[in-house]
Amino acid sequence: MEASRPQVQVQAQAQAQAQAQPKPKEAKLWGGRFEEGVTDVVERFTESISFDKALYKHDIMGSRAHASMLAHQGLISASDRDSILQGLDEIERRIENGEFNWRADREDVHMNIEAALTDLIGEPAKKLHTARSRNDQVLTDFRLWCRDAIDKILVSMKQLQVSLLTLALNNEGVIVPGYTHLQRAQPVLLQHLLLAYVEEIERDAGRLVDCRARMNFCPLGACALAGTGLPIDRFMTSEALGFTAPLRNSIDAVSDRDFVLEFLSVNAITAVHLSRLGEEWVLWASEEFGFITPSDSVSTGSSIMPQKKNPDPMELVRGKSARVIGDLVTLLTLCKGLPHAYNRDLQEDKEPVFDSVKTILGMLEVSAEFALKITFNRERIQKALPAGHLDATTLADYLVNKGVPFRTSHDIAGKSVALCTLKNCQLLDLSLDELRSINPVFEEDVYEYLGVENAIQKFVSYGSTGSACVASQLDYWTKKLEMK
Ligand code: ARG
């Protein structure tokens, strides 16, 4: 059956009435040339106050610096500056106490604060927007906001690294199967694997630090796009706001969003790292692996299956990485093909950034907590170790030490594994005669290389899983993360 379209009732009369007596609206701050106000539909569609009020603190910071500079340059009087500064203090207080009335008809955070300041202090407030446009203002706010967000993420990253290192220090000597292709490959120290995550997060943090440095330039004073004819001092506002310097090019200053693209790329890479950690721990908590037991405090149950205990936080870490990647893609798509300079499309840049930051902070926080609430099941891991001939590569290394070319060693070790498969045993269980039947080069000392405990001791290369290397890496991280 064909679905019928809902009937749209056009209430012509009511509409005509509304048009005849428009409810009185406050004139827009930009309303000089307009004869009528925007419709409610347009107002609802174009407002950004519902989300950009998150920028209020940074908007006020920017206005304080701007007003002080205007006074310093003689563009406003000292007493106007003082009224503006006092008024901004009061507005900040009201916002923080939940007493501020955010109004959608005042569009965005910038106009809400400026209009409220005018309500509060009158004439001097009308001078605040001298030599400033919302285009440079929004970017000043946004860069300041992102800078703070980066600082918060960096703290959370360090907390995760500390948790992972704590987990490593509490699990000395545990050997786990190392995988490639999710097939058993070689034995590794659990500590070595945990430190691999720490390394990944360290590079993510490094990327954030780089991004912060490139972001930390001031758009304020670029105005709409061309700068201004008024004698402002952009270096003064830049310095007051803790920026490295003013952005050199006013068109670039108001049109580019590469600082957020870079920020969201870093978050996306971090999210991908965390999703891999999430996947690994979900897998390891399964009955099939049974390598870890998360505590009840980080697990959840099923509403139908009474026996279930699920590692939901790490599943969601894996899942939420999708949002963080999506936020980056949204922003890339938003910016693609936009003509210079500012376009209203760019108002859409905020929500993906807010979402990305909130999500990545949550992912880091929950991973750090989870890491401190899991137990490694040593016995279960121990039982799992013999399967998969994890010492086969070490056997090949043994043969190389005996002067056998590696390709031949690989072949001999492979044949030894084949014999094990035939006999359903471990390499360690083959007698010297059996090994010699494959190749006479084997001697009694081969048994020093076989079995995972022996094999792990044989790793000596820089960065390898050998106990000595791992110990020195643990030492490095303990110092770097100031855990001693
Ligand atoms: N709310 C706007 C945004 O986030 C502020 C800048 C608007 N500028 C303009 N000329 N309409 O992009």
What does this molecule look like?
By secondary structure, this protein is mostly helical. The chain folds into three domains: 49-130, Orthogonal Bundle (Fumarase C, Chain B, domain 1); 135-383, Fumarase/aspartase (Central domain) (Fumarase C, Chain A, domain 2), CATH 1.20.200; 386-480, Orthogonal Bundle (Ribonucleotide Reductase Protein R1, domain 1), CATH 1.10.40.30. Helix content is 58%, strand content 5%. The chain is built from 19 helices and six strands. It has helices spanning 12-20, 40-46, 49-52, 56-72, 78-96, 109-121, 134-169, 190-215, 234-240, 250-255, 258-284, 312-335, 350-371, 378-384, 392-401, 406-423, 432-438, 452-457, 467-480; strands at 175-180, 183-189, 217-218, 245-246, 292-294, 374-376. A two-stranded antiparallel ribbon has the order 1-2. Strands 3-4 form a two-stranded parallel ribbon. A hairpin with a 2-residue loop joins strand 1 (175-180) and strand 2. Helix 4 runs antiparallel to helix 5 (78-96). The longest helix has 36 residues, at 134-169. The model has no long low-confidence stretch (mean pLDDT 93). The structure holds arginine. Arginine (ARG) binds next to helix 7. Pfam families: ASL_C2, Lyase_1. Residues 1-26 are annotated as: Disordered. One of its GO terms (biological process) is L-arginine biosynthetic process via ornithine. GO terms for molecular function: argininosuccinate lyase activity. Residues 390-456 form the Argininosuccinate lyase C-terminal domain.
